[in-house]
Amino acid sequence: xxxxxxxxxxxxxxxxxxxxxxxxxxxxxxxxxxxxxxxxxxxxxxxxxxxxxxxxxxxxxxxxxxxxxxxxxxxxxxxxxxxxxxxxxxxxxxxxxxxxxxxxxxxxxxxxxxxxxxxxxxxxxxxxxxxxxxxxxxxxxxxxxxxxxxxxxxxxxxxxxxxxxxxxxxxxxxxxxxxxxxxxxxxxxxxxxxxxxxxxxxxxxxxxxxxxxxxxxxxxxxxxxxxxxxxxxxxxxxxxxxxxxxxxxxxxxxxxxxxxxxxxxxxxxxxxxxxxxxxxxxxxxxxxxxxxxxxxxxxxxxxxxxxxxxxxxxxxxxxxxxxxxxxxxxxxxxxxxxxxxxxxxxxxxxxxxxxxxxxxxxxxxxxxxxxxxxxxxxxxxxxxxxxxxxxxxxxxxxxxxxxxxxxxxxxxxxxxxxxxxxxxxxxxxxxxxxxxxxxxxxxxxxxxxxxxxxxxxxxxxxxxxxxxxxxxxxxxxxxxx
Length: 481
Prior knowledge:
Elements: H1 3-23, E1 26-30, E2 34-36, E3 41-48, E4 64-78, E5 81-94, E6 98-102, E7 105-109, E8 112-116, E9 119-124, E10 153-154, E11 160-166, E12 170-172, E13 177-186, E14 193-195, H2 198-209, E15 214-218, E16 226-231, E17 234-248, E18 252-256, E19 260-269, E20 279-287, E21 291-296, E22 308-316, E23 320-324, E24 328-339, E25 348-349, E26 355-357, E27 361-369, E28 372-385, E29 389-392, E30 397-403, E31 408-412, E32 417-421, H3 426-480
Parallel strand pairs: 2-9, 12-21, 22-30, 23-32
Antiparallel strand pairs: 1-3, 3-5, 4-5, 4-20, 6-9, 7-8, 10-19, 11-13, 13-17, 14-19, 15-17, 16-17, 18-21, 19-20, 22-24, 24-28, 25-30, 26-28, 27-28, 29-32, 30-31
């Protein structure tokens, strides 16, 4: 074997052994096969040489209840070489006696998958002296703590709450109101918290609170960011997890039930030490207060079931425009403001022989922010005018809506003026508008004329026969004389 090949083989074997050693840096340790009712079963995940950056939730065990998670770290020095291990321990409390099975499972720890074959667990009667189930600390023997009891963890009083907030107590049908869900902690709060599966919780909460009698515009919060607020004479940190505006379809009420939001709340070791875990993971659920929004009917109006509700104004594509008779041009009627932009309908158009208007193209833009839904809806009309004149578009377009701030109906009308020059095209417009109808009726009219012709000839024939009969009878009578 040449020296080059030998070096290649040596490097290959070195990499292979290194990969094998690295793959064994993560391991799962299962607790005892027999557990008393007053003891706990544990699953311990240990990573050597690096911190535990991420890991999957540990499995549920039938017949047991999760009691919390603790974390620990240790450091060893052997022959001058320092190594460290970091562990996560999940505790399980047995609920009843019997034989139970922890199925095989796979976890992702620091992005690497590791499997456990599971095991059978027997739960027996409570023992007079519970065995110590906690993970061994390599420094216990060194500092004479090997026979000490489990560290005692205490719950720290918290100053926090979960709230569903609304910006209005009553609205009109179609009027929007804002809803937000947030977790609040006062600046004086000492209890340590962390978020627990916010995505899954939010999906469940939305299904619980989303009303069936209102249109939703979701603000789509993608990350939970702290916000400093002040109320009740205190400063708080607000973590908003959901925000939306709702637009009710009918009168009555929109009701939001109380919903729960679960946070990870850590218990703190009563006698903290330099080594081992000084806090124990636990959970606490906070509940929002139910809320109800009163929905009032719109005042009487012929179009009360069709109009949009909000604060709107009109934006036009031009103030004054010159055009030639029969030539087309584009006019944009744009409604902007605050409200349910998606539901805005086109303006009412008054038809005229002088003005040809085609169905509009539509464009919509919706903005969700600062507790409001704003935007614009644009209606782009292609039009032709057939007579020389100064045409005010306010005579042809109008958009009626309800303003909830003034509790009154209002109308948006154009200010645009079109100055039209050229020969009258109105006769051409009439002919072209009637031409299609005439051609459509040709076959029907032909049939009518044909039927009328048959009736005429048949009537003439009958009359002729009657005259001949009368003449013939007269001739016979004269002949007898």
